[in-house]
Amino acid sequence: MAEYISFQPSDFFSPKLYTGTGSSNAITGVGFQPDFTWIKDRDTTHENQLVDSVRGVSKIWFSDDTGVEVTDAAGLTAFGADGFTVNTRGAMNANTDDFVSWNWKMGTTSGIGGSPSTTPEGYSFSATAGQSIIYYIGTSVAGGGPIATLPHGLTKAPEFIIVKNLTAAARDTATYHVSTGNTKRTYLNQGVAPNVTSTAWNDTTPGATVFTVGANEAVNELSKYLVAYCFTSIKGYSKFSSYTGNANADGTFVYTGFRPAFVLIKSVGATNWNIFDDKRATYNPANYPLWANTDAAEQTDPYPIDMLSNGFKGKTVSSQVNSAQEYVYAAFAEFPIVSSNDVPGVAR
């Protein structure tokens, strides 16, 4: 069955490549004004740089690090109508280095629904695209309480949540994934298996209007500032699910209902968070993974995947993407199988 959405995926998610200049550098061609931008230097060991419009453009946190948020006026200096501007910060704009940015648009900054126990300090959401940024202050002493409920703005339950404690040092970045459930937490900054804990999500599955954070320092530390990025599957645009690898060079086919622009893959064992996109490899196989949990440069052809018109599949035997174990993933579309103007998506 053809899967339609009323918008183009590039209206709400867009990867963009650029070359650093070492001085003020306006990056255009994103296609919209981003609310959340994730930047990685492809050539060297710079940390993953994450910036959003809710916290402010000068504030950066790192997906591969346990450190606090930093403020750098020489980093990302502005979100523009068609992209963003970076300045002299080497991890965002080192002269002649190649960079990739992954960009999401939210955009609604008032009128969020739900009856949460904690009111966010700020937020931006898109119910249409199923994605939001929630900025809040923690309420709980570790091992004690209280828990907190927070609005997410998506009108249906989030299936993937990333939470970063911004103002306490040595805190891991916690993730919730629908396929591992509300009793487990996986750290985005580590290549480790999910751990069982009742304190992260309070053993509570996110609901249609709110999600729950428990008595855990990573997600709800008393008086600390935290940010949550919430996502739910939108047919033809995004999908958050799992698959079991087959340990075969012709890997397991994973149906998404669209041609992917971005795929984040993590096994339930001790592997990296592998990022593939359609801009760094413009034809199959997609063979240049980056890792959300390390500052390593882009890898070359160690364990490729094919990005197909309706999903993706591993092309080698690898613990990272295709051994005989379960993998969770987050995927965003380049193109649905058939768009609202009846144009079919095709393999690359």
Uncertain segments: none
Q: Tell me the structural class.
A: mainly beta
In whole angstroms, the N-to-C terminal distance is 21 Å
Percent of residues in beta strands? 35-45%
Give helix % range. under 10%
The description of the largest β-sheet is: 7 strands, antiparallel
Q: What topology, given as strand order, has the largest sheet? A: 10-11-18-13-14-15-16
**Helix and strand element order:** EEEEEEEEHEEEEEEEEEHEEEEEEEEE
Radius of gyration (CA) equals 19 Å
DSSP summary: helix tally: 2
Strand tally, please?
Answer: 26
**Could you report the average pLDDT, rounded to the nearest whole number?**
95
Approximate shape: globular
Summarize the topology.
Layout: E1 13-19, E2 25-28, E3 36-41, E4 49-52, E5 59-62, E6 70-71, E7 76-80, E8 83-86, H1 90-93, E9 98-104, E10 122-126, E11 131-137, E12 148-151, E13 160-165, E14 174-177, E15 184-187, E16 195-196, E17 210-213, H2 217-220, E18 225-231, E19 238-244, E20 253-255, E21 258-267, E22 274-277, E23 290-291, E24 305-308, E25 311-314, E26 326-336
Antiparallel strand pairs: 1-9, 2-8, 3-4, 3-9, 4-5, 5-6, 7-8, 10-11, 11-18, 12-17, 13-14, 13-18, 14-15, 15-16, 19-26, 20-25, 21-22, 21-26, 22-23, 24-25
Describe the protein in words.
This protein has 348 residues and is mainly β. Helices cover 2% and strands 38% of the residues. The chain contains two helices and 26 strands. The protein has helices at residues 90-93, 217-220, and strands spanning 13-19, 25-28, 36-41, 49-52, 59-62, 70-71, 76-80, 83-86, 98-104, 122-126, 131-137, 148-151, 160-165, 174-177, 184-187, 195-196, 210-213, 225-231, 238-244, 253-255, 258-267, 274-277, 290-291, 305-308, 311-314, 326-336. The strands form six sheets. Strands 10-11-18-13-14-15-16 form a seven-stranded antiparallel beta sheet. A hairpin with a 4-residue loop joins β10 (122-126) and β11 (131-137).
